[in-house]
Automatic annotation (TrEMBL):
It comes from the Bacteria. This is uroporphyrinogen-III C-methyltransferase. It comes from Aurantiacibacter gangjinensis. The keyword Amino-acid biosynthesis does not apply. Pathway: Porphyrin-containing compound metabolism; siroheme biosynthesis; precorrin-2 from uroporphyrinogen III: step 1/1. GO terms for molecular function: uroporphyrin-III C-methyltransferase activity. Belongs to the precorrin methyltransferase family. Pfam families: TP_methylase.
């Protein structure tokens, strides 16, 4: 790794949350960084309308990840960010949602710190918050839920984990990256004691014009995902709060954010 000498000027790595979709849901700080950056390293879930905010001469580098295919492994992404910063360039690392909510921002921050590179964290509206707002599903509700849990649905060893306390009466469970593993998720939750008729919602393309909110019981989750051909990005929300949501408010929110 390149050695940093006293007085050597290095760039800054900005870990920036792009929010759930619409440019209007960016923070002011995120918008300013995107508009002025000379180098943006972005995830595949960042909406094209947000990338279009970059200046015309900006270098845009996609490091999109899918379940079985990564443009760059995470170690190489870390190395790229550090290399550019050590060369004196400021880097905007642009992530869908929030950098610290299933965004691996913690790993990139640690890599920057280990190399002696300045790093700034710019939080974004998380996918869960965006999906809840756009679909009218309050993740907490005085009568239905005072606890919210966030889980990665594609985590290894799914069948070996104890999910018995994550969902149920008084709780809301939000599952990221769970489309492909929906059958295993439903089976796991019911095996750990959750009622088959527990209400669920699947929010696809939250905060975008093509957003869909699909509802049903937990036992029907696999069939719902298959019948509706649900694609990522999508969140699965499990709990009684999903029965209260009104997807009719979604067009109003989307119209306000386009």
């Amino acid at each position: 790794m390149r050695r940093i000498w006293p007085g050597m000027e290095t760039g800054t790595i900005h870990l920036v949350g792009a929010g759930p979709g619409s440019p209007d849901l960016l923070t002011l700080r995120a918008a300013r960084l995107i508009e002025t950056a000379s180098l943006i390293v972005h995830d595949g879930l960042v909406d094209p309308s947000i990338l279009a905010m970059a200046r015309s001469d900006a270098r845009l580098v996609s490091v999109a990840k899918q379940r079985s295919k990564h443009t760059l492994p995470q170690d190489e992404i870390n190395a790229l960010l550090v290399h550019e910063a050590l060369a004196g360039r400021d880097v905007v690392r642009l992530k869908g949602g929030d950098p610290f909510v299933f965004g691996r921002g913690g790993e990139e921050m640690e890599a920057a710190q280990a190399a002696g590179v300045r790093v700034e964290i710019v939080p974004g509206i998380s996918a869960a918050n965006g999906a809840a707002a756009a679909s009218g599903i309050a993740l907490t509700h005085r009568e239905d839920a005072s606890i919210v849990s966030f889980v990665a649905g594609q985590c290894k060893g799914l069948s070996d984990q104890d999910w018995s306390g994550l969902a149920g009466v008084g709780r809301t469970l939000v599952i990221y990256m769970g489309v492909k593993t929906a059958p295993q998720i439903a089976e796991k939750l019911m095996a750990d004691g959750l009622a088959p008729d527990m209400p669920i919602a699947v929010v696809e393309n939250a905060c975008r014009p093509e957003m869909r909110v699909l509802r049903g019981p937990l036992a029907g989750l696999p069939d719902l995902v298959m019948a509706e051909a649900v694609q990522s990005p999508a969140l699965i929300i499990i709990g009684h709060v999903t029965a209260r949501g009104d997807a009719a408010i979604a067009p109003l929110l989307l119209e306000a954010t386009l």
